[in-house]
Design goal:
With 192 residues, the protein is mainly α. The protein has five helices and no strands. Keywords: Membrane, Transmembrane, Transmembrane helix.
Length: 192
């Protein structure tokens, strides 16, 4: 009896879990899908928007005759993809977690680990943005001549990012509380 998983069959949990699965699925597809479409179908427009955004720091990017190298493009797009991969992985894990909830699996070790991983990914994504912005600026300045290259380092997060970080911390703490609760529950089963 101690090793068996307890399943909960609350219909409200099932209904809300299915709603969360739908939302997580739509967000995962939209997040990664829009990223892929913007770089593959609208690559020139997206590239011009990026160059225009950095033109205040690096005016040489918008000069006539400037051609961005393949290395610079690949580096920039690769760096731009990292947050999308992290957020898409988070959405997929959220969908899996709520799928398990819908099946009635609540206090399992894999749900506890899943909650912890989702919280960690949420925090990681928000703190990676300043680093990625710095590296993207460096990737764009690869093609510029000496004296025109710029190193711009940003540090800090906005209030929306702080909210996401706090929610990630909440998930980390909640998963630790779930783990402790499961240990106590398992210990009590041994004595009954």
């Amino acid at each position: 009896m101690c090793g068996k998983q307890e399943f909960v069959t609350n219909p409200r949990i099932r209904l809300l879990s299915f709603l969360a699965i739908i939302i997580a699925s739509v967000m995962a597809v939209a997040d990664m899908g829009f990223h892929i479409v913007s770089w593959s179908l609208w690559g020139d427009t997206t590239r011009q928007a990026v160059i225009q955004a950095y033109s205040d720091l690096m005016p040489a990017l918008t000069e006539k005759g400037f051609k961005q190298s393949l290395l610079s493009q690949v580096l920039y797009i690769s760096l731009d993809t990292i947050p999308r991969v992290i957020s898409t992985a988070s959405y997929v894990l959220i969908g899996i977690l709520f799928f398990r909830f819908a099946k009635g699996e609540i206090w399992s070790d894999r749900n506890i680990s899943g909650s912890f991983i989702i919280g960690f990914l949420m925090i990681l994504e928000q703190f990676l943005y300043p680093v990625i912005n710095t590296l993207q600026g460096m990737a764009l300045s690869v093609d510029l001549g000496k004296g025109q290259r710029v190193f711009s380092f940003s540090l800090g997060v906005n209030s929306e990012s702080l909210f996401i970080v706090m929610f990630g911390v909440f998930l980390l703490i909640f998963s630790l509380i779930m783990r402790e609760s499961k240990k106590i529950s398992d210990e009590q089963r041994y004595f009954i």
